[in-house]
Amino acid sequence: MTRSGQEYLEALRDGREVWLDGERVQDVTTHPAFRASAASFAGLYDLADDPAHHPVLVQGGVRRAYAVPRSYEDLVARRRAFRTTAEASYGFLGRTPDYLAAGAAGFAAAPAVFTGDTFDGAEHALGFHRRLAEGDLHGAFTLTDPASGPGEDDLTLRITGERDGGIVVRGAKTIGTGAVFADEILVGTIEPLADDDLDHAVTFSLRLDTPGLKLISRTSYEGRSRSVFDHPLSSRYDENDAMLVCEDVFVPWERVLTYRDPATTGAIWWRTPAYLNFVHQSATRFWTKLEFLTGLAILVARSHGTDKLPPVTQALGRLLGMVAQAKAFVLGAEASYEEVDGGRGGVRPGQEISFAQRIMAGELYPRAVQDIKLLAGGSLIQLPASGRDLLHPELGPLVRQYFRTPGHPAEDRLKLLKLAWDALGSEFAGRHEQYERFYHGAPHVYLTMQTWAGSADACERLAQACLDGYGLGTTR
Question: Which of 64, 170, 178, 397 has its CA at a distance of 20 to 30 angstroms from the CA of residue 100?
Answer without folding.
Answer: 170
